[in-house]
Amino acid sequence: MVEDNQADIRLIKEALKTSLVPHEIITARDGMDAMAYLRQEGQYLDAPRPDIILLDLNLPKKDGREVLAEIKADPNLKRIPVVVLTTSRNEDDIFHSYDLHVNCYITKSRNLTQLFQIVKGIEEFWLSIATLPSK
């Protein structure tokens, strides 16, 4: 998960606490840290490859749009599904994300019940239903 908002991180983790699918959530708080993790650089030399990336667009240091572009341009990372999970409803953000080959664009809800449903839906589809590429 690439998210800078601590409240959103907490809520997403809370929504996944009752998951029946085994998972580990690794959080990067900015775009630079996310790319270092994905490329296994610096302190992340032994970082496991994620099965899916939840990506906020509005991040410090390197925004989510740049992160998405770098992921999808990198032959070693481009097959990792990326789900943009953001508050932005901006049509330009939506179109640009799909132009960069995002796998899914979801607008976060500020309603707690709806946010939990969104996160559970992401979990159910991407970790239970979808067939993901092998590492």
Automatic annotation (TrEMBL):
The UniProt keywords, alphabetically, are:
Phosphoprotein
Q: Where is the Response regulatory domain?
A: 1-123
Q: Give the GO biological process terms.
A: phosphorelay signal transduction system
Q: Which residues carry this modification: 4-aspartylphosphate?
A: D56
Membrane-spanning parts: none
- InterPro entries in UniProt: CheY-like_superfamily, Sig_transdc_resp-reg_receiver, TCS_response_regulator
Database matches in Pfam families: Response_reg
Could you name the domain of life of the organism this protein comes from? Bacteria
- Indicate whether Phosphoprotein appears among the record's keywords: yes
Task: Please give the Gene3D superfamilies that the UniProt record associates with this protein.
Answer: 3.40.50.2300
State the name under which the record lists this protein: Response regulator
The organism is: Richelia sinica FACHB-800
Q: Recite the lineage of the species.
A: Bacteria, Bacillati, Cyanobacteriota, Cyanophyceae, Nostocales
